[in-house]
Amino acid sequence: MAASAVMQTLLATPVAGSLVKNQSRVSHLFSATYMPRPRGGASRRVLCKAELDDQMNSEEKIATPTPTPTPTPTPTPKPKVSKKFSDVFAFSGPAPERINGRLAMIGFVAAMAVELSKGQDLFSQISNGGGTWFLGTSILLSVASLIPLFKGVSVESKSDGFMTSDAEMWNGRFAMLGLVALAYTEFVSGRTLL
C-alpha cells in the first residue's frame, strides 16, 4: 500500500515522465521502495483516464451515425381575406353561418330566460313585442360582425386559447338546433317547455 502511494506521488510529479522511462534512476532515487519489474521483458503501458475517455468518445463517434439536419419548412403565407361583398356573403363564406350562429345563441338564451321568468312560450314571445327586439338585435349584431370582415380581418386570426372560432361555430350550430327544437316541442305540446 505504501509502495503504491509512493508510486502515485512519483507519477503525479512533473519529473515523473522522465523518471518512468529510466527505471534505474528511479530505483537509485528511492532505493528503499520496491518497484516491480515486468517479467519476461514484457513492457506495460500506463494510460491515464483522459486518454481512455478520448478513445471511448472516438469509438462512440464512429459507432453512432451523425443525424442529418432536417430542413426547416418555410412558413406558409397567410391566405388573403377577400373584402368583396360577394365573397363575404358566399354560401361557404365567413359571414352567413357565423352571423346566424351568433343570433341563434342570443335568441336561445333570451327565449329560455323569458320562458323561465314570464312563463311564455316562444310563439307568444314573438307576438308580444319580441319581433322588434329580434329585428333590432339582428341588425346590430350583423353590422358588428360585418365591419371586421369588410376590413379584411379574419375570425381565425383573432381566436386563441379556449374561445376559438371553431368553438364559436359549433356553439352557434347547437344554438340553431336548440331554437328549432324548442319551437317544435312547444308547437307540438301546445305549452311551454319548462
TrEMBL record:
Full protein name: Early light-induced protein
Chain spans, region Disordered: 56-81
Transmembrane region(s): none
Family to which this protein belongs: Belongs to the ELIP/psbS family.
Cross-referenced SUPFAM superfamilies: Chlorophyll a-b binding protein
Ranges in a coiled coil: none
Subcellular location: Membrane; Plastid, Chloroplast
Keyword list, A-Z: Chloroplast, Membrane, Plastid, Thylakoid, Transmembrane, Transmembrane helix
Taxonomic source organism: Salix udensis
Biased composition (Pro residues): 66-78
GO CC annotations on file: chloroplast; membrane
Pfam families, per database record: Chloroa_b-bind
Membrane topology: Multi-pass membrane protein
Lineage per the UniProt record: Eukaryota, Viridiplantae, Streptophyta, Embryophyta, Tracheophyta
